[in-house]
Amino acid sequence: MKKQERRKEKVDMKVAEVKVLYTENPLGIDRVPWFSWKLASDKENTRQTAYRILVEEGGRRVWDSRKVETADNLYIDYEGESLKSRTQYHLEVTVWDNHGNEAVGYAQFETAFLREEDWKAEWVVPAARRKKGKKGFGKQPPATMFRRRFSLKEKPVKARVYATCHGIYELSINGKRPDDRLFAPEHTVYEKYLCYQTYDVTGLLKKGENALGMYVGDGWYLGANTLPNIKRPVLKHAVLFQLEAEYQDGTTEIICSDERTVTSTGPICCADLFAGEKYDANKIHKGWDTPEYMADDWQKTKIMKFGYQNLMAQLGEPVVREDMLPVREVLRSPKGEWILDFGQVISGFVRMKVRAPKETEITLEHTEVLDKDGNYISNIMAAGGAGNGVDQRDVYISDGEERIFEPTFTYHGFRYVCISGLSEICAEDFEAVVLSTKKKNLGIFETSDARLNRLYENTRWSQKANMMSIPTDCPQREKAGWTGDMLVYAKTALLNEDCGAMFSRWLENMEHDQEENGVVPMVVPYDGAYPATGKLMNLMYHEKGAATSSGWGDAAVIVPYRMYEVTGNTAVLRQQFECMKKWCNYIIQKAAASKPKGSTLSDEIENYLWDTGYHYGEWLIPSQNKNGLDMKNLKTIMMSSSCYTAPIFGWLSVSTFAKICGILAERYPADKKDYGRMQEKYGKVAEKMKYAIQKGVIREDGSMPSNLMGAYALPIYFDLVPEQFKEKFAANLVKSIEENRMCMDTGFLGTPFLLDALCRIGRRDLAYTLLWQDKAPSWLSEVDAGATTIWENCFGYDEEGNPGKLSFNHYSFGCVDDWMFRYIGGIDTDTAGYSHIIFAPKPDDRLEWAKRSYETPQGRAVCEWRKEKTAEGILLNMKVEIPCNTTAVICLPDGSQQERGSGIYEFCNVMRKEEKK
Ligand code: BGC
After folding, report:
1. How remote is the CA of residue 447 from the centroid of ligand 1, in Å?
2. How far, in Å, is the centroid of ligand 1 from the Cα of 488?
3. Cα(193)–Cα(509) distance, rounded to whole angstroms?
4. pLDDT tens digits for range 307-357
């Protein structure tokens, strides 16, 4: 074996990316922060040996961690003096490494309001009555403009606005927006958790007269599809803002929302996050948010006592414009419609340049797919749980001027846009604006196979489209935080993007939506139609509280645990601890308290099986949903797999929680919780649950109650199969694939584990067969059919080529990327946060090369390999990059292994023929 080492010019070690609560230099935090950083160095084998953190406020030291001899550099708690509201803190992190280097990294953070009393502003609403909004296009009252004029004695040296609303808003100061965020204040459990945003508006203010504007649309709070689960909410746009200006002489001035705020309606005649927006340019109030504007005919506002107790400074980044796509083609459908094809299914809206005669009404209808003849069709299943309408429409009414129009308070899931109202279509006048919650990209994956690359791209696009303030199921139908979808997809998501802040915020909300009895609902935030549907479901199943299901509520434990596995995040484990514990207690109690009718199992087994109640089962097992959701047989279908998913996911939550207790005991010894004891307690219960699965779910002859692929894959993957049945399970799993035309046939809950289960039984060849399969249902059949995203149902189209009514943008089945990253990309780990990396690509014959790069919490890990044909046989050339403060094992094709520290290394090794284990 030959090894070459590449050395570039040497630089000393650096401290990079100092993060405060997930973000670099956050503005407006309201919780005690933790800090993380990375080391960067060209010197091989660089490890941190110690750090020291200093935090200062106004030149005064408020924390000195002292030198701590450790390699730990992630999620380090601030332990200094109590923080003060609205204060800037400077952070200095000194790091020492094993080569005798010392380097310093800097960051700053600013607090928002740490006490309720900091709020001086009043909630205000328009004094006039508001008509109730309904579902469907055009059925909402107009968006509301709020305006407050004020004067300042000087131009301030520092100014902040803290603002939020009921609805979604855009803030402007003297006609300018302080940032490019959309859909503030985010989708949350509003009654208990309403985010406010902090803006730096120093540069926008001037001496003398100024104006603050807030344009407010319905968003989630007032949207008929997403009404918050609040008893008798006041369904009016409401705002709360507090501007704090600091002058050169040290004095400050506070401008608040109060009855001096006036309101009006404007060009946005109606806006619904689902159905779309209608914009009448004739109603534009030019300069409405500047001081010069005369607002004499504007209406009064009145003060409401909504209180401040649910207000939380926004954690993490907002929704932003991520990309702009040009029109790929202007199509004329057989029906004569003008259709723009943007070439990619996305979440967002169309930005259009218009010059049309006054009163011209231009309509944009959005869809993900066209019918088989190329006509416009709405592919929204109207009868979905959310019961939302079928519109995804924007309408613009011209005032005769040339303008750029884009909607403000809606977004759509689409690739195609059908346009009416224009006599001529000029492709250059349109662009698709791609939206997503802002997150750092963490990965690259590329191979010699264009179809695998497209599959990866499709997952990335579905991820982008469904990270819209919360993780959603799909952008065109429900836009809802289905917990099970995230359980399935969390690991892939975290390997693609830095989702920490967004997930952490969503998990905090999950805790707010959790019922007293521990139930974590199937959807978080649990709003809109879901609580009502949940009640019906509960009536049918004699359940209480919010509706949940195994595999969905289990997200409470599994999502934080995935965050820990991928990013080493112990902070989120601690944050979610009570929520996880309550959920596990719910499962345990549920398993003990009820048994299915006619069960003949002994109590010792039955009391540890979660086998009653409502469950989705694996959900969308392809063979059971060939023609979309089979509503008629839904219950039977769900039960055919919930007989194993419920006991297995119940066990998974409890056993994972026991592990988490162990992790917390080690990491936070000073916490007053009795983590160690709980590890033991829940560990014991998990053992009994495992035994119950082995005796009560797996039959005496080693078969499963349903002969489904997932029924064998899940127990194999989770090591639940008793020794004497291992061969039988392996054979049954293989048989289920053979009988299914060598296609995958697992639903949401089975799919993340299917290919790994095959590798565990030594059938990596079969895992590759499923991956390469191009007959439906399979991943590549979607790619071959021209998919640009991951579909909800593997059978997207019927045999005639008509699209089904399910969504074409659902990330769940994209979870296969996690397997590709490890087996093809060659990067895996056996420790939390990739502190020890495993480079072990296991390519099959159909691939020539691959490149995977993943920004681990410690820095970039890269694995690049290429096969080379030589006289001696096939060689594998491999190049790996190992980030500082980690170690790695490189597994070569001949079976040898090399342990290395940070650096860039190249290897060349003879490939042996793959052998079946
Ligand atoms: C959603 C899913 C979700 C499922 C639960 C659907 O309507 O789109 O992704 O997990 O319901 O059954």
Report:
1. 32
2. 12
3. 7
4. 999 999 999 999 999 999 999 999 999 999 999 999 999 999 999 999 999
Check if 473 has its Cβ closer than 6 Å to any atom of ligand 1.
Answer: yes
DSSP character string of 441-491: B-EEEEES-HHHHHHHHHHHHHHHHTEESEE-S-TTTT---BHHHHHHHHH
For ligand 1, mutation pick of 225, 520, 619, 621 (most atoms within 8 Å of CB)? 619
Strand-pair category, 194-200 with 311-313? parallel
DSSP β-ladder status, 252-256 and 238-246: antiparallel
User: pLDDT of 644-688, one tens digit each?
Assistant: 999 999 999 999 999 999 999 999 999 888 999 999 999 999 999
Q: How far is the CA of 616 from the centre of ligand 1 (A)?
A: 9
Rounded to the nearest angstrom, the distance between the alpha carbon of 618 and the centre of ligand 1 is 11
Sign of CA dihedral 147, 153, 157, 160: negative
Distance, in Å, from the CA atom of 680 to the CA atom of 662, rounded to the nearest integer, reads 9
CA of 473 relative to ligand 1 center, distance in Å: 7
CA distance to 104, 794, 886, 904, per residue, from 12 (Å): 11, 51, 17, 16
| CA of 620, closest atom in ligand 1 | 12
Residue nearest atom 12 of ligand 1, based on CA coordinates: 616
Does the C-beta of 485 come closer than 6 Å to ligand 1? yes
Phi/psi at 540 (5° precision) = -65, -35
Residue owning the nearest CA to atom 1 of ligand 1? 473
Nearest CA to 765 out of 712, 725, 823 is that of: 823
End-to-end alpha-carbon separation of the chain, Å?
24
Closest CA to 46 of 858, 915, 866, 897: 858
The two tokens of residue 607 are 């009391």
Work out the burial of residue 236: count CB atoms within 10 Å of its CB; fewer than 13 is exposed, 13-18 middle, 19 or more buried: buried
**What is the structure's pLDDT at 128?**
94
Ligand 1 and 488: CB distance under 6 A: no
Q: Whose CA is nearest to atom 2 of ligand 1?
A: 473
Residue 812 contacts residue 794 (beta carbons within 8 Å):
no
Residue 766's φ and ψ, nearest 5 degrees, are -70, -35
Q: Which phi-psi region, left, alpha or beta, contains residue 826 (left: φ > 0; alpha: ψ -120 to 50)?
A: left
Atom of ligand 1 nearest to the CA of 522: 5
Token pair 């001949």 in the structure block, residue: 894
State residue 738 phi and psi, 5-degree precision. -60, -40
Whole-model pTM over 0.85: yes
618 lines ligand 1 (CB under 6 A): no
Do residues 778 and 791 lie in contact, with contact meaning Cβ atoms separated by under 8 Å?
no
Q: Determine the distance separating the centroid of ligand 1 and the alpha carbon of 87, expressed in angstroms.
A: 43
